[in-house]
Design a protein that fits this description.
Blueprint: E1 5-9, H1 13-25, E2 30-34, E3 48-49, H2 53-59, E4 63-66, H3 73-78
Parallel strand pairs: 1-2, 1-4, 2-3
């Protein structure tokens, strides 16, 4: 799998599970997270935090995981279409 850049949107319990699995499967990938809580530090297994959708788009990810609350999935996905 040639996935080098990944964004995980939402780092609740499901987002963290995705992060754990992706880090294990793709140890050399750059995994950035995006979450609404600005005071929350980024998870240790990630490479950093993106502030907003525009930053995520500029990052040019190969893969985007949408793991925020399901009521926001469509709106979030539309930002990347």
């Amino acid at each position: 799998m040639n996935v080098k850049k990944i964004v995980i949107i939402g780092v609740g319990s499901i987002g963290l599970k995705h992060l754990d699995i992706l880090r294990e499967l793709l140890p050399k990938s750059v995994i950035m997270v995006m979450h609404h809580n600005k005071s929350k530090k980024y998870p240790k297994k990630s490479n950093g935090v993106l502030e907003n959708h525009n930053d995520a788009i500029k990052f040019k990810p190969d893969l985007i995981i949408i793991s925020n609350p399901s009521s926001f999935h469509l709106k979030t996905a539309m930002n990347f279409s």
